[in-house]
């Protein structure tokens, strides 16, 4: 039995969005970011420009297409799994964020091929790196909000979310990839835990 929200219209929308993302990454891989237009992406995806703009505000958004879905899943996990109000327990807040990331990561849609293209584009473009860092900042703010909903004191929630972001950015730097390798993320969190010892 299919999910009630899984209507034909919903499936068509998901398919169109996936085609836009796939087409954009193919074109970025072939021609670089700056040499690809929205019109070219729409043409490759066999959709109109209007359809493109129904899903994405600009071609940069396509690069970070899955970020919003991933953050939604992480925030839901944080709200659902906090067994008790987190209060001022920074360690518990960080552990919950780490757990949320680990549990939701397998659902990330960015393929290894797309991840490699994104890594190359981020190396080549200061503007894209800036936009990427902005998406990470927005992610941290949303996660801080979820921690507050889970009973964390605001300053603890904000510090935990930004500390988790710092660990992730460290892992990405070590992996030289926009996909933080779990071992590198764990290494960064381990360094933090060593502060207490």
TrEMBL record:
One MF term in the entry's GO annotations: transcription cis-regulatory region binding
Keyword line: DNA-binding, Transcription, Transcription regulation
Membrane is among the record's keywords: no
Gene3D superfamilies (alphabetical): Tetracycline Repressor, domain 2
DNA-binding region ranges: 37-56
HTH tetR-type domain residues: 14-74
SUPFAM superfamilies linked to this entry: Homeodomain-like
InterPro entries referenced in this protein's UniProt entry, alphabetically: DNA-bd_HTH_TetR-type_CS, Homeodomain-like_sf, HTH-type_TetR-like_transc_reg, HTH_TetR
Source organism superkingdom: Bacteria
Protein name per UniProt: TetR family transcriptional regulator
Organism of provenance: Nocardiopsis alba
